[in-house]
Specification:
There is one protein chain. This protein has one domain. The radius of gyration is 18 Å and the shape is globular. By secondary structure, it is an all-alpha fold.
């Protein structure tokens, strides 16, 4: 996220399994999804009173602080920040910041479950973007799956219903920019370590949000608000590393489907905190989007194995 909840998968993590890696990978993925959804709920809560740009700064800055022990483990700060692609890191950071902005804004105005269900189109966008940007081949089966996924979006927004407003474009725009981030990560991961990619995102996002912070800053009014905003960063950072570790322990085809458990956590938190009760259309549309995403994942897994 980012993230939003749907996660971009570093290609150097695909297919690695060792010992009890499957169980560990599934556990870390489930933990990461739960934490990311909790972060989203905290962002929705805080965005009701504070500017989204301020929340992005806390997310980026304190999320980067979480990386310190991982950077030390990777050989020290100097090794972790070494890069051959500073320009591409900058681009990834800028696009990622825009993605965070649109998602956090969506959480302010939409029910949490609706916003997260719409964000599930990110893998569909990523598949479509892989053709012009990465030169990958996408056959008619996956194009059909993409079409089914977008049909699911229409079911969620319910033309003629309450969600069919310009505000519904916010999580969709967030999913599109996050897909761009995912494609960029695919390119970066050919030469860069995961901790390096995450660090530079936090660095550039902190700088961008920090430049605008003096114009929107509002001192948190209570200890609870301080904890909430710092928590957005710390929880987001831990969630990001949990997901990264999940993909390093188990194959993508095993752990990626657990990303969709976010809709369960979002529905529970939305009901407990705000009293939101998702309508049947949210779950029906999410099922179409999730089904299309799982089919694309299945096809990509088979193609990688040559079957």
């Amino acid at each position: 996220m980012a993230s939003p909840s749907p996660t971009a998968v570093p290609t150097d993590a695909v297919g690695q399994t060792r010992g009890d890696g499957l169980i560990g990978g599934i556990g870390l993925m489930a933990l990461g999804v739960m934490l990311f959804t909790g972060m989203d709920a905290m962002a929705k809560w805080q965005s009701e009173r504070y500017d989204v740009l301020q929340l992005i700064f806390f997310r980026a800055f304190f999320g980067t602080m979480v990386l310190i022990p991982f950077m030390l483990r990777a050989g020290g700060f100097a090794v972790a920040v070494r890069t051959r692609r500073p320009g591409l890191h900058f681009m990834r950071g800028m696009i990622g910041t825009v993605s965070l902005f649109t998602f956090f804004l969506a959480y302010r105005y939409l029910e949490l479950a609706d916003a997260i269900a719409l964000s599930f189109v990110s893998p569909l966008f990523m598949t479509a973007l892989s053709v012009p940007i990465l030169g990958e081949q996408v056959g008619w089966r996956r194009w059909t799956a993409i079409a089914v996924g977008f049909l699911g979006v229409l079911v969620i927004v319910r033309p003629g219903g309450g969600l069919f407003t310009p505000l519904a474009l916010l999580p969709i725009a967030g999913a599109f920019t996050y897909a761009l981030v995912g494609v960029t990560i695919r390119v970066l991961s050919r030469t860069e370590a995961s901790v390096t990619i995450v660090f530079y995102f936090g660095l550039f996002s902190s700088i961008v949000a920090g430049l605008g912070l003096p114009f929107v800053w509002q001192t948190p009014a209570s200890l609870q608000d301080w904890i909430g905003q710092i928590g957005i960063g710390l929880i987001g950072g831990v969630a990001q590393m949990a997901m990264t570790s999940a993909f390093s322990r188990a194959p993508v085809s095993v752990v990626a489907p657990f990303d969709y458990t976010a809709i369960i956590w979002a529905s529970v938190l939305g009901y407990l905190v705000w009293g939101d009760v998702p309508v049947a259309g949210t779950f029906a549309g999410a099922a179409l989007v999730i089904g299309s995403g799982l089919y694309i994942l299945h096809r990509e897994t088979r193609l990688r194995r040559g079957t």
